[in-house]
């Protein structure tokens, strides 16, 4: 029998269709591995983006406080002829007592401030000048400031003030601070010994003196605290204190601003 052509032998293995499927699967797995590797590399970056601090949101209370101080935060002694109204000199403290005395009565705050200015121009913030003045001279000064309703009574009170500060505190109200051991309640108690100063007068003094006597800060008188609420500052004095950086000077200016807003009925500007 002659040799014929031997039939070709098919190689062992998967059929072509299976080989194609396997190749696609391999490519898919390779792509998945590549994507997983890429994800792992970018994951720290994504995490860092999530934990990256964002821009701080604006504090509405601070914005209101800043706006109030910027527009109306002028302290009572700021426009008077005093060399350094923010320092605790005997002259500045006496000037603040005049401010408390004159603005705590039932009189226009504009006239009261004008009267304070006339008293300072007369040199009565110097205890010796005040002691050497006559009742008639003091009455004339108060009349010049428009303080006509209570001028006689107040002129008498000024004379008694001169004797009180001289005899009890050696002419310097800083000695009152020492006697009170820098305690706000005790300071209030001793201030009430000054004839003509009651609770309202003491509140006014504490509002305006906390810059030069920081132990009084933070303080906002009760009437102005209501104004603070109307202006959006809230009723938490400690929070307001923190908002302005616990700065006695800024607290003093904020109290002055709230007083002006209250007296001139400008609450709507900030509500």
List the helices and strands in order. HHHHHHHHHHHHH
User: Which descriptor suits the 3D outline?
Assistant: globular
Number of helices: 13
Helical proportion?
55-70%
N- and C-termini, Cα separation: 118 Å
Beta-strand share of residues: under 5%
Strand element count: 0
For the sheet with most strands, the description reads: none
Flag low-confidence runs. 1-12, 42-55
What is the CA-atom radius of gyration, in angstroms?
A: 39 Å
Structure overview:
The chain is an all-alpha fold and 271 residues long. Helices cover 62% and strands 0% of the residues. It contains 13 helices and no strands. The chain has helices at 16-51, 60-72, 90-103, 109-121, 127-131, 135-144, 151-169, 174-179, 184-191, 199-209, 222-230, 237-243, 248-263. Helix 3 packs antiparallel against helix 4 (109-121), helix 6 crosses helix 7 and helix 11 crosses helix 13. The longest helix is centred in the N-terminal third of the chain and has 36 residues, at 16-51. The termini are far apart. Residues 1-12 and 42-55 have low confidence and may be disordered.
